[in-house]
């Protein structure tokens, strides 16, 4: 049996969220920074973990922190930063504002990992580009799109060879919830024990 591609995880910590009004990764949820919940889950996968952030304070979590190689290009710029800072075949890109993710779903997506195909979750008709696997060989394509100003992650997925893993392979679609506002944070606090 041939081994699968080498995978490295990169967590997008971004910066100040316009809707939250502060840095989402460090917002407290159930007594811990939101990114800490994400990192704890990802640790169980036993893969190299890295953080993409322009704030050195993220070094407190004990993983390598990389600054954006191109400024203000959103997740697409984050993906390029990951590609530029790994020797792996595939980057597992994860947003810091998805504290309900599970290793179960990560492993389901990783089973389809390929050196030439994007793998992302599909919930209903919604693709989740920030909990997805991207082949590093797409680096030139990402650079071209950034230079053209085309930063839509979903468009990028659909324009390239991809596998979309539909819901039904995991227990709850709630694991893909991301926290963008104070109200969503409050709701997440209330539902934490139920969803985790």
Automatic annotation (TrEMBL):
One of this protein's GO BP terms?
Answer: Mo-molybdopterin cofactor biosynthetic process
Localized where?
Cytoplasm
Assigned EC number = 2.7.7.77
Annotated positions binding Mg(2+)? 97
Q: Which EC class is this protein assigned?
A: transferase
Reaction equation(s) it catalyzes: Mo-molybdopterin + GTP + H(+) = Mo-molybdopterin guanine dinucleotide + diphosphate
Read off the InterPro entries from this record.
MobA-like_NTP_Trfase (IPR025877), Molybde_CF_guanTrfase (IPR013482), Nucleotide-diphossugar_trans (IPR029044)
Residues where GTP binds: 12-14, 24, 68, 97
GO annotation, cellular component aspect? cytoplasm
- Going by the entry's taxonomy, the superkingdom of the source organism is recorded as Bacteria
Assigned keywords, A-Z: Cytoplasm, GTP-binding, Magnesium, Metal-binding, Molybdenum cofactor biosynthesis, Nucleotide-binding, Nucleotidyltransferase, Transferase
Name a Pfam family for this protein.
NTP_transf_3
Which Gene Ontology MF annotations are present?
GTP binding; metal ion binding; molybdenum cofactor guanylyltransferase activity
The protein's role, per its UniProt record: Transfers a GMP moiety from GTP to Mo-molybdopterin (Mo-MPT) cofactor (Moco or molybdenum cofactor) to form Mo-molybdopterin guanine dinucleotide (Mo-MGD) cofactor.
Matching PANTHER family: MOLYBDENUM COFACTOR GUANYLYLTRANSFERASE (PTHR19136)
Q: What is known of its domains?
A: The N-terminal domain determines nucleotide recognition and specific binding, while the C-terminal domain determines the specific binding to the target protein.
Concerning its family, UniProt says: Belongs to the MobA family.
Protein known as: Probable molybdenum cofactor guanylyltransferase
């Amino acid at each position: 049996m041939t081994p699968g591609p080498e995978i490295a995880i990169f967590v997008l910590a971004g910066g100040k969220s316009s809707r939250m009004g502060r840095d989402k990764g460090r917002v407290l949820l159930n007594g811990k920074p939101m990114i800490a919940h994400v990192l704890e889950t990802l640790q169980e996968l036993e893969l190299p973990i890295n953080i993409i952030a322009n704030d050195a304070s993220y070094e407190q979590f004990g993983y390598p922190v990389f600054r954006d190689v191109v400024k203000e290009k959103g997740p697409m710029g984050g993906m390029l930063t990951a590609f530029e800072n790994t020797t792996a075949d595939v980057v597992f890109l994860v947003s810091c504002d998805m504290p309900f993710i599970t290793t179960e779903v990560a492993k389901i997506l990783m089973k389809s990992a390929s050196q030439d195909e994007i793998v992302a979750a599909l919930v209903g008709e919604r693709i989740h580009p920030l909990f997805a696997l991207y082949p590093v060989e797409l680096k030139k394509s990402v650079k071209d799109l950034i230079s053209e100003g085309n930063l839509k992650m979903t468009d990028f997925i659909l324009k390239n060879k991809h596998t979309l893993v539909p819901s039904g392979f995991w227990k709850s679609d709630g694991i893909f919830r991301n926290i963008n506002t104070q109200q969503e944070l409050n709701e997440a606090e209330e539902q934490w024990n139920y969803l985790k």
